[in-house]
Amino acid sequence: MYLSLSDRPASAANRARGRTARPRVARLVVTLGVVSLLTDISSESVSAILPLYLTSVVGLSTVAYGFVDGLYQGVSALVRIAGGWVADKSGRPQQVALAGYGLSMLARVALLFAGGVASISTVISADRIGKGLRTAPRDSMITAASDPAHLGRSFGVHRALDTVGAAIGPLLAFLILWGIPDGYHTVLVVSLGFAVLGVVVLGLFVPRDAGGVRRHEPLHWREALTRPMLRLLLVAGFLALLTVGDGFVYLALLNSTDAAAQWFPVLYVGTNIVYLALAVPLGRLADRVGRTRVLVLGHLPLAGAYLAACVATGLPGALAALGLLGTFYACTDGVLAAVAARTVPDELRTSGIACAQTVVALARMGASIGFGVLWFAIGPQQALVLVAGGLALAVGAGAVVLRIGPSRQQDAT
């Protein structure tokens, strides 16, 4: 039985049955969280230096950076659906995820030798393809291992562990660059080491049949395109069109506060600390009050982050922007997968998650490219204010489309 996008928390009886059937957070969820922790140390240590490196060292304009950031945001979308379909068809999401993590590890090796914009873009694309392959199968394994009544909590625990890595990675980059002002190559070597560890943990400690659902009847794509899924894709994609890359927010903060360049990676750490603190509480809140409600309304803190970045002139303004940005991710990142997983049959769970993540990734790619042009044309403050206003309006429209209201019910069978 698959579920709708209505807004009722699971019944008390279902929660009681879930408590007796399995632990609220399964061991597999924690193991996958450790894999994500190690991998995020690797990827975020690189992404934390990339905007500054490309704009200040390589000398790219904001238009060119917007193109590269668009690749970073959206290339994974090229393979997400294919990866999800292969995982569902084979009933082996663990192996598809392992291939994705392995490709990103190889991209870390290639990045050590990439010296120009073209080669860097190619390596980034390969890394993002690896992310596209692994994300939906990993989230599918989390869903399969979790009690449906506590699915938001499970994703919150996973994302909390993931965010520990996302906070450590930029902090490592900051410490390396603090000690070695030109130590970009050292950051890349450290990044590769953690990527290798993540692949080893996944290969050794996650069963090969984890999350697999087999059936003898052929799978058809139309089974994944349920009415709740189509509504979710429409709203999530439209909101993502107004979600610009974090690098732009951090560059705006750097410009407005006149902070030294070596502090740039610390901005990522600030966002991730807030995300880490709120991931589990907001996941539990989503289980109680409605996951679609938290998903849509969670974009309001993002609009607030844009406005805070416009007016920040010192530390309080910068902290407000980082806190609001971290709150946005805690409300939406794992919750999107949790909602998508419950709108399709179990046999197409990975494909359903991949569909939602693909739409969001493609929309964010377009948003980054478009915002780079907008920044260049009218300036950072004006561009951020314009996007913040549009996002606030989009949240209201999304609430109507998904029929979010105080009397609605979430995830009813």
UniProtKB/TrEMBL annotation:
Keywords: Membrane, Transmembrane, Transmembrane helix. It comes from Nocardioides panacihumi. Residues 28-408 form the Major facilitator superfamily (MFS) profile domain. It comes from the Bacteria. It is a multi-pass membrane protein. Coiled coil: none annotated. This is MFS transporter. Its main location: membrane. It is found in: Cell membrane. The chain crosses the membrane at residues 48-68, 160-180, 186-206, 232-254, 260-282, 294-315, 321-341, 353-378, 384-405.
